[in-house]
């Protein structure tokens, strides 16, 4: 194999692609909200855990911090308009679900909404967190994974190759 010539690259967002994810949550007052997050990934297989990064100035941050739970929703390209809106508008200014007619249902285990039109929803409970600079990284146990049947393999795992994710 021929050696590749390499130059130093930008460090910010150095690991790509990242999954495009929407975190939905519910405040102690019962108000639902969702935001797009740029940092989300597996951090343990046993027990199954995800790490989610949220900027403390975001409206949803305090909801997650106070309740200790959230749902990660994986949107397909059909949900791009809603994804872009959720990522560019603050819930402190308006009810984003109502404005975009986003359908939800209560999660089974955690007190947060699932975004029905996303084919995969992952219920999470926060077990720890740490500030890493711009984001607080929430280490969360995976409590339940909801997946549309057509995207499940025979062994019950999600077939990500079939999802047309953003």
Q: Which H/E pattern describes the elements?
A: EEEEHEHHEEEE
Beta-strand residue fraction:
35-45%
The radius of gyration is 17 Å
* N-to-C span: 33 Å
Largest sheet: 7 strands, antiparallel
**What is the approximate shape?**
globular
- Which regions are unreliable across 5 or more consecutive residues at pLDDT < 50? none
Put simply, the count of helices is 3
What's the β-strand tally?
Answer: 9
User: Level of helix content?
Assistant: 10-25%
CATH architecture designation: Roll
For the biggest β-sheet, the strand order reads 2-1-5-8-9-4-3
The CATH superfamily is identified as Electron Transport, Fmn-binding Protein, Chain A
Q: Label the structural class.
A: mainly beta
CATH topology name: Pnp Oxidase, Chain A
Q: How many separate domains? A: 1
Q: What is the residue-averaged pLDDT?
A: 94
CATH class descriptor name: Mainly Beta
Report on this model:
The protein has 166 residues and is mainly beta. It has a single domain (21-161), classed as Pnp Oxidase, Chain A (Roll). Helices cover 13% and strands 37% of the residues. It contains 3 helices and 9 strands. The strands form 2 sheets. A 7-stranded antiparallel beta sheet has the order 2-1-5-8-9-4-3, sandwiched between helices. A two-stranded antiparallel sheet has the order 6-7.
Layout of helices and strands:
Elements: E1 21-26, E2 32-37, E3 39-45, E4 48-54, H1 59-67, E5 69-74, H2 80-86, H3 96-100, E6 104-106, E7 113-115, E8 120-131, E9 136-147
Antiparallel strand pairs: 1-2, 1-5, 3-4, 4-9, 5-8, 6-7, 8-9
């Amino acid at each position: 194999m021929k050696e590749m010539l390499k130059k130093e690259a930008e460090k910010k967002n150095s690991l790509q692609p990242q999954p495009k994810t929407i975190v939905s949550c519910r405040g102690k007052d019962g108000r639902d909200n969702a935001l797009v997050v740029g940092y989300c990934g597996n951090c343990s297989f046993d027990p199954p855990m995800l790490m989610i990064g949220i900027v403390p100035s975001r409206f949803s941050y305090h909801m997650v911090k106070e309740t200790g739970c959230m749902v990660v929703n994986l949107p397909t390209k059909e949900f791009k308009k809603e994804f872009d809106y959720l990522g560019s508008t603050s819930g402190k200014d308006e009810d984003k679900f109502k404005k975009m007619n986003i359908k939800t249902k209560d999660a089974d285990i955690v007190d947060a909404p699932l975004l029905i039109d996303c084919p995969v929803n992952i219920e999470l409970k926060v077990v720890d967190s740490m500030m890493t600079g711009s984001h607080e990284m929430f280490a969360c146990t995976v409590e339940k994974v909801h997946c549309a049947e057509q995207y499940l393999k025979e062994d019950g795992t999600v077939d990500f190759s079939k999802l047309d994710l953003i």
